[in-house]
Design goal:
The complex is a heterodimer of chains A (362) and B (267).
Chain A (H helix, E strand, L loop, with lengths): L4 H38 L7 H14 L6 H34 L12 H16 L10 H24 E2 L2 E2 L1 H25 L2 H12 L7 H28 L3 H6 L4 H23 L5 H13 L3 H25 L8 H19 L1 H5 L1
Antiparallel strand pairs in A: 1-2
Chain B lengths: L4 E10 L2 E11 L4 E5 L6 H8 L7 E6 L2 E2 L5 H4 L3 E4 L11 H6 L10 H14 L15 H20 L6 E5 L7 H16 L3 E5 L3 H7 L2 E6 L2 E6 L1 H4 L2 H8 L3 E4 L8 E4 L6
Parallel strand pairs in B: 3-8, 3-9, 6-7, 7-8
Antiparallel strand pairs in B: 1-2, 1-4, 4-5, 9-10, 11-12
The chains are: A mainly alpha (362), B alpha/beta (267).
Chain lengths: 362, 267
């Protein structure tokens, strides 16, 4: 069968169509992000009208934050850093999810489900409980100890996962998910031990980290997380081609000129540092890494050149939106964000399992 | 003249089994070399060794004058394309996107040129009408054809920056209907004639004899015969290696020798 020239042009209109989709999705996500930011800054325990928020922002920038009124303090020192933190953590977790899904060649991989967050949480818990018992000379390490421990925990969990679940370039999904269960169980048993030996303050901190909350947001945390979020964003273009080729298989990616070991090491490192930093700042938040990339994939397809940057935007919208809900739904109290993302994400994950039941058995 | 891609006394062991035992094979530019042999003879392992995917325990694979282990993956991708036996695409790519994976980041191909190469490669395997369908929904045979198109696209992209490529095909016609088997092998043969060094594993001895310029017969990890089809496809050699009585003859209606199980013959 031979195709006429017009048929050929028709077939390849899809490439242009794909590009249009990417542009539209980007525009839609940016609009959503602005909307979420607006709601998030105006709503909460006290209501600050949109016009007033704009005034406050302009004033705060002009005066570098001196002489702020009460509502201005709420916006500048509570809501704004919290919004930024939610966006950056959402973006970091979503990209981590997309990277893990590419590395494991499976859309069901997620830092939360696969136990990477649990590993980071365990590292954080270790730092909380043992941090106070360190000799005086190490006291200055205090502030960097927790993020470093969370990073190392996440790194150890990701490596373990990869080595357990991948044989000769093929990843068994069943083994990956079960290994995630095992890692999470291991982490929770250690958490139990830590809870037993910790004092009241440490116990409160531990609970906070295992449930996840953005309540502790401040500008210092934003400043600490910004370079990591920036690193994730900057790394995206360098990983896209390799991850696309990896969809064919590890041997095939090598045949297409991909340096596999370097790609894998870069992904494991990036996932560990992003999840470690997120957990250190806001505790364990699951499902963002699976929901955001999957939604993006449904709309623009699996090409990582679009998938990774759009997951950044999608994750930011998702977590900032979820956090706004978490603190307004039951105001003046607030729900732990991890509870809310699990409530949205778990049914979504079950639906995904149902739709891909065949792949999971394989 | 030295061959473009050659194995020099390569051996490969996995656990305690020797899968490939001191094999030497030259794959020359402009010719189609066909590997035949029973299951488990080491054909796929030899392909994986010659593609650089596996490192031999002893011996060396030389590609374009350089030991393959010393060539970076990116430069190697400009020298050879590979179609492996079982390829599973884990992401929901469309068919034309799968072919594009063979072009991305390889050689210097402009956007317009890229679309043209993808079209041509899909047309060669008669899959242009599948271009915008999800790859995962294609039949097994259709997927194999698209993977061949992807390897062709890689060769085309590599040719944009340098001459001299090898194409390694591990059972390229498995699952294909007869007309597409011939179409694919015609394309591979044509590529060989245009200067590419082609190495293919085939199970159909008649196709091997028809398309191979050189046949290499493998058995138990070693090459037991290598040369022109007439020299390799003898009744005695084939019967011995495949452990079944085979008759080789050239019927009046055929240009090339035909191999049949002896018990199918009337006399």
């Amino acid at each position: 069968m031979s195709a006429s020239l017009d048929d050929i042009r028709d077939e390849f209109r899809f490439e242009a169509d794909g590009r249009r989709r990417v542009v539209l999705t980007t525009a839609a996500l940016v609009a959503l992000l602005v909307l979420v930011a607006l709601v998030s800054l105006t709503h909460g325990a006290i209501r600050v009208p949109g016009g007033r928020v704009a005034d406050i922002l302009v004033h705060a920038i002009a005066t570098r934050g001196v002489n702020l009124g009460q509502d201005a303090v709420v916006v500048i020192h509570i809501r704004l850093p919290r919004l930024f933190l939610a966006m950056m953590i959402g973006a970091a977790l979503a990209v981590s999810g997309a990277l893990m899904q590419g590395l494991f060649r499976n859309p069901l991989a997620d830092p939360g489900l696969a136990g990477v967050s649990a590993g980071a949480g365990l590292g954080a818990a270790l730092a909380i409980v043992l941090g106070d018992r360190l000799p005086q000379e190490f006291a200055t390490l205090g502030s960097s100890l927790l993020p470093a421990a969370a990073f190392l925990g996440a790194l150890a969990a990701t490596w373990t996962l990869y080595f357990v679940a991948t044989r000769e370039g093929r990843t068994s999904v069943a083994i990956m998910l079960l290994a995630g269960v095992a890692l999470a169980a291991l982490a929770s048993s250690f958490m139990g031990v830590f809870a037993y030996v910790s004092d009241d303050r440490q116990l409160r901190d531990l609970t906070f980290w295992s449930m996840g909350s953005l309540g502790g947001a401040n500008w210092a945390k934003v400043a600490a997380l910004a370079p990591i979020a920036g690193l994730m964003l900057a790394a995206c273009p360098f990983l896209s081609r390799g991850l696309n080729a990896l969809a064919l298989g590890e041997a095939e990616a090598f045949h297409l000129g991909v340096r596999l070991q370097r790609l894998k090491a870069a992904i494991v490192f990036l996932v560990a540092i992003a999840v470690g930093a997120s957990v250190a700042a806001a505790g364990v938040i699951s499902f963002v890494g699976i929901v955001a990339p999957h939604a993006v994939r449904l709309i623009v397809g699996p090409d990582h050149r679009a998938l990774l940057p759009l997951s950044v935007a999608g994750g930011a919208v998702l977590l900032a939106g979820a956090d706004t809900l978490a603190r307004t739904l039951v105001a003046p109290a607030e729900m732990p964000i991890g509870v809310l993302t699990a409530a949205i994400g778990a049914p979504f994950f079950l639906w995904l399992l149902l739709a891909r039941a065949r792949d999971v058995g394989a | 003249m030295t061959a473009f891609l050659s194995a020099r006394a390569v051996s490969y062991r996995s656990q305690r089994h020797t899968l490939v035992d001191a094999v030497s094979l030259d794959v020359e530019a402009g010719r189609m070399t066909v590997l035949i042999g029973p299951n488990g003879a080491g054909k796929s392992t030899l392909i994986r060794l010659m593609s650089g995917e596996l490192r031999p325990n002893s011996g060396a694979v030389v590609c374009d004058g350089e030991p393959i282990g010393r060539v970076s993956p990116a430069r190697l991708a400009l020298k050879r394309a590979v179609m492996t036996q079982a390829i599973q695409v884990s992401s929901p790519f469309l068919t034309h996107e799968v072919v594009r994976l063979g072009l991305d980041g390889i050689g210097r191909v402009s956007g317009l040129e890229r679309a043209r190469v993808i079209e041509q490669c899909l047309a060669i395997v008669d899959a242009l009408h599948l271009a915008s369908r999800p790859y995962g929904n294609l039949s097994g045979g259709e997927q194999r054809r698209v993977q061949f198109a992807r390897a062709l696209a890689q060769i085309a992209a590599a040719r944009s920056v340098q001459d001299g490529q090898a194409l390694l095909l591990d059972e390229p016609v498995a699952n294909l209907d007869l007309s597409h088997q011939l179409g694919l092998l015609d394309a591979a043969h044509g590529l060989a004639r245009s200067g590419v060094a082609v190495l293919a594993v085939l199970h159909d001895l008649n196709l091997a004899g028809r398309y191979g310029d050189t046949l290499a017969l493998m058995s138990k990890g070693a090459i037991v015969a290598c040369g022109a089809p007439q020299a390799v496809q003898t009744s005695r050699l084939l019967s011995d290696v495949f452990a079944i009585d085979l008759a080789v003859g050239t019927p009046l209606v055929s240009e090339s020798p035909v191999v049949l199980p002896s018990r199918w013959l009337r006399c």
